[in-house]
Amino acid sequence: MQRYFTITQLTQEFDITTRTLRFYEAQGLVTPQRRGRQRLYTPGDRTRIKLILRGKRLGFSLAEVKELIGMYGSAPGEAGQLRLLMEKIAARREELLEKQRDIELTLLELEEVEAGALARMEELSPVTSEER
């Protein structure tokens, strides 16, 4: 297993910018070692980056991701981390289901408005039987 990763390796692997990695560092999410001006990331940093990106895809904020990652190495440890993760998943699922319901209602309303507009257009420009 590789001992260190450079910023270039990680940005290419995860398709993110160096600015993103530096932002994660500034937020305390990763802590690369320094060799002169070069940042060297450990396999643990690489795993944290993977978890950060997964959390973002799932819709968690960076603060939530940081909270989850931070619990891993301290009390209540992995069990607490998993309980918190399950709570956050349930909350995120409910949020998404609510958005889904809102979208479905909006689509229905759009269909109703569209049908009304089409009906009104037909009223405004009647087509005679000869034009059909």
State the assembly state of the protein chains.
Answer: single chain
The fraction of residues in strands falls at: 5-15%
CATH architectural category of the largest domain: Orthogonal Bundle
At the first level of CATH, the class of the largest domain is Mainly Alpha
What can you tell me about this protein's structure?
The chain has 132 residues and is mostly helical. It folds into two domains: 1-60, Orthogonal Bundle (Multidrug-efflux Transporter Regulator, Chain: A, Domain 2); 73-122. The chain has five helices and three strands. It has helices spanning 7-14, 18-26, 43-57, 62-72, 77-124; strands spanning 5-6, 33-35, 38-41. It has a three-stranded antiparallel beta sheet with strand order 1-3-2. Strand 2 (33-35) and strand 3 form a beta hairpin. The longest helix has 48 residues, at 77-124. The chain starts with a strand and ends in an 8-residue tail after the last helix.
List the helices and strands and how they pair.
Blueprint: E1 5-6, H1 7-14, H2 18-26, E2 33-35, E3 38-41, H3 43-57, H4 62-72, H5 77-124
Antiparallel strand pairs: 1-3, 2-3
Helix pairs in contact: 3-4, 4-5
